[in-house]
Amino acid sequence: MIPVHAFIEDPRRARRVVVQLRAELSFGSVVWTSATFDVGPGGCGLDGDRHLAQRDDLFVVLEDEVSTAKLQARALVAWTGGGRSGLRFVSAGRGPTPRAWFGELLAGRPSLVATEPKLERIAMTSMLSRRRRAGILPPLSPQEGLLFRLVTGPTPLRALAFHSGLPPPEFARALFGLLEKGMLLFEPAPDIAPAFQG
Question: Among candidates 81, 9, 84, 82, which has minimal Cα distance to 44?
Fold first, then answer.
């Protein structure tokens, strides 16, 4: 499905930090522990997918031994694959809201750097290409992996959206995730390329 608007907006506008926290999860009567690979006020990424499915409704408790910040929240599985999962917080349990908890976490761990999304929207006429990287690729969601494989050379954003087959919200999340991880670069559009060759 192709977004019909002139721009695509980043649905993940909240700050995030790369940090490993203990996560206790419950799904029905099943309880297990995992670890985060990143967190923000709107959700977290988990190592391990434990046979979760998109839209599963979980209860999560995140604990940080350094700052003593603790979050108890209901969460929905936003994505899963490759041995990882992404959760979106939907309501707070006892204790602070996810936003207040995130503030406590940052205050208690000054060394953590919360990354602000650098782009809020991109013109659908943009051209993208892969960034050449040496070494191991960063962890990618299944949707990010799909988009990354589809960019084989300078690729128009509108064509990438069409060929991905992803619904617009999933496409936007994956696209901005790849840009944030430095996996994609902007290319000059063909009609303005000569101006950059001065």
Answer: 84
Rounded-to-integer distance, Cα 31 and Cα 87, Å: 16
pTM of the model as a whole: 0.61
Cα–Cα distance for residue pair 173/94, rounded to 1 Å: 29
Q: Which CATH number belongs to the domain containing residue 182 in this structure? A: 1.10.10
55 and 86 inside one domain: yes
Q: What CATH number is associated with residue 28?
A: 2.40.10.220
Q: Which residue has tokens 């209860």?
A: 59
Largest CA distance in the chain: 65
CA distance 100 to 110: 16
Q: Cβ(36)–Cβ(30) under 8 Å?
A: no
Condensed to tens digits (0 to 9), the pLDDT of residues 74-129 reads 999 887 777 788 888 998 778 889 989 998 898 888 887 655 555 677 888 888 99
The total number of structural domains that make up the chain = 2
Residue 114 lies in a domain: no
| CA–CA dist 116, 47 (Å, integer) | 22
Distance of CA 28 to the CA centre of its chain: 26
